[in-house]
Amino acid sequence: MPMFPIICRLFATLSVSLALSLPAYAVETLRVLAWPGYADNDLVKNFEKRFDVHVEVSFVSSDDMLREKISANQGGDFDVFAANTAEMQHYISQKLVVPLQLSNIPNTAHQLPRLRNLQAIPGITRHGQVFAIPYTYSEMGLIYDRKQFRKPPTSMAAMWDPRYKGLVLAFDTSSHNFSIASLLLGGSPFQIEDKQFSKVAEHLIALRRNVLTFYTLPEESVRLFRKHSVALLFANYGSQQLKQLRDAGADVGYVIPREGALARLDCWAITRGVKNQRLAESWINYTLEPSVSEELTRRQGLASTIEASPLIVKSDKLIWLRPVENAQRRAVLWSHIISGDLPEKFLAP
Amino acid sequence: MKFSDHIKLGIGFKFGSLLAAFGILATSLTGYYFYSSSRNMLASAAERDLLTSTQVVGRNMKLIIDMIAEDSQLLAAIPVTSNVFNSPDELTAERDKKVLADTFTAMLTAHPEYFQIRLISTSQHGLELVRVDRNGKTLTRVLDANLQEKAHYPYVFDTLRLARGDIYLSDITINHEKGAHSGLNKPTVTVSTPVISSNGKKLGLIVINIDLNGLSRLLKSNLPSTYQLYLSNQWGDFLIHPDATQTFGFDKGKRILIQDSFRPVLSLIHGKGMNVVTNVDEGRQKQDGQVAAFVRLPFGDTIEKRFVILGLSQPLDNITRETTRLGWDTFQIILAFSGLALILSMLVSRIVTGPLNAMVSAINRFSKEHVISTLPLTRNDELGLLSRSFHDMQTQIMAHLSELNENRKALDHLTRHDTLTGLPNRRMFFDRLEHAIASSRRSGKHLAVLFVDLDRFKEINDTFGHAVGDKVLTNVAILLKSSVREVDTVARLGGDEFVILIDMIDDPQHVTTIVQKLHNLFQRALQIDGRDMHVYASIGAGIFPRDGKDANELMQNADQSMYNSKKDGGNTSSFHAFRSEETS
User: Fold this and answer.
1) Does residue A42 belong to the interface with chain B, where contact is any CB pair within 8 Å?
2) Which fold would CATH assign to domain A142-255+322-346?
3) B146 contacts in A (CB within 8 Å)?
4) Quick one: which of B146, B152, B284 has its CA closest to A208?
5) Which of A18, A112, B386, B572 could form an SS bridge with B565, CB 3.0 to 4.6 Å?
6) Of B148, B173, B252, which is closest to A339 when you measure between CB atoms?
């Protein structure tokens, strides 16, 4: 066996591997922590090409996981990440995020009017400084059966309406259900006063006694809706769920109730450990380009902050999620309620 | 023998290599074909086994659920259950509930995989009437204020839609229903059946909660330990997974779907088949080296077409270990047969090149030594033919050679002898003379040259003819030869002129004796053709070194003395410088 070709091949392999490994040292890296669907590969590639950088995307699947990843190493492991408004407070208070230079994110000018007034969005500003920029949202409206409602329901109170006893589908969640009940009782959705808790819980027991059931999965809601001729559904998954029901052949409508719909608003924020803030801001700006934001709607069915959703009119009220007064307390009470405990067992008279 | 070695390497090596290559190639190809087909057979057998096992586990699961269904039907049918609803007074009702609770307790004792058994009322928002929970090792009856309203659970409202004896099977979920029971926050499935009064009124329902982990233990109990069990709901959410953290993702706000881990399962979810096996090659690339079989099992009532997906996986190692062993065995067989092919080809090449080599050495010997070696003449093949042809050629060449030799010898003789008398001719005589003079000079001994010329030979020729003349010469030659020693040379110089070389003479005087003897011989008549014929000769002698210092001078002087004799009338002899007195 002649040695020469072997040596040649060895050299070729060496030089190729060198060539492959070099850019990792030479090119700047942007570390993005996002939710699945927020940073698709092709869109990331475009960004890398345009800015001549390397982008490293990691994904999370829950708020808790996100908190854990950002808190580790004081935010030093990532440059930019996405969290909802209710969570942002935590990051601002813990000083894990830095104020944004809005002049570096000019695409915010194209965002929907209700998202442009950042001071009006709770949880993303503090002391006049902006810490997060909205990227996508999902509101929780009401889905109703057009055959059973001559007029669309106007309020979430319809879920308590005895006319629809056994025909309502609510969502199995502590936080949102307490917020809705408090809102309907005239209180604040996110700050329930101590003395009001029993009343709100009793109201939820009333809801329990009126609903068919509390669902968890969107597919489950579609099945229940059709099987039990459900009239009204609390759409925790928003427009995605509406689409699923319509695809399944249900004749349904969608409304934002007059007291407003709870809405999850996901925003980009930059960590304290950012390496190149300018580059991180360029990333945020890039995701707000119509061509990128539209893909979010097209591929994931998520609302973009650039184009108005056809399901929501200007006058519709969206209540962006905020941290609640005591999530733990709500969860404990909710577990009693959902388990079917009698009021006298867990509520002070 | 460098040349012949080179040839041996050439033919033997090439032929052997070709044979060996062919043998090895044939063995390898056969081996590879055998390996790949056996490997495929092994793999598909393993896949088939896995699928069969999965189907068996599926059937077991159905049997277990059917048995639980029978238990719930039994509880719904016993009179005490209906009595709870129709008690005339509170006290009787309590007593009936107690009896029912005892029955529940007995059943929970018999079935460790049961978490909880309840009787739930249709009224009061589905309030529980009798409830016994398993709480660790104890069984607890839940009483009064701790009883809960359950009307909003599908297992209640769906069961109440059923007819007597029908069974409702809930979705498999994490049990978040609070209470003092072991089933809290554990994966569970409920089996329930309505309680219907004799007049057809739906009074309530019997609900049995089953521990999914217990169920999974039951299912796995008959399986080899390397098998992993999977269960998913009809959307693909993992319910049973070897890694418990991968189950009930939806309960933690995160979907962990079976079709993401095992792509082919998607076809089952979409109803495009009842079972699927991820094949070995797919498994090698992903799924952590697992081969898995999945079956779609109807779950719950048939109208809703609910189903679960049950799967078993087996580490690919178990299958590849077999195929690896097979591969190794095949490799060894190939190796052994290749070795055999190598040896055989060497042998065969020997068999073929052996005779060739023998022939080569035979040719070599023949060309060097003109010896005909033994060849494989008796073979019936091409080599035999070649040997025979070669042998014929050798024999022919040998015949030619010996003929040539004979001719050469004859020619040689001819150039050195007189054809008529057979005596050495002038050329040979001078060779011998030179030779003799040289030895004489070394030894110091004398030699003598005698010139013998027949007298009046011309007359004999003229009178009796040449034939008689020739006979006279022949007889004289015989006469001269007989009169000298064997070592002496008698030659004919031409015509009637003879010369005799007498070598190694100790005493020159001795020559005179010889001359005299010759002279005397010529005095007798020769018998030629029956008549006496008198032939006389003149003889001249020269002795070396006395009469000449070399051959020419000696010969000249001898010739001169012969000539002197002739002048004296012939039939005389004379010596150089002196004349021997003739006698007549």
Assistant:
1) no
2) D-Maltodextrin-Binding Protein; domain 2 (3.40.190)
3) 345
4) B152
5) B572
6) B148
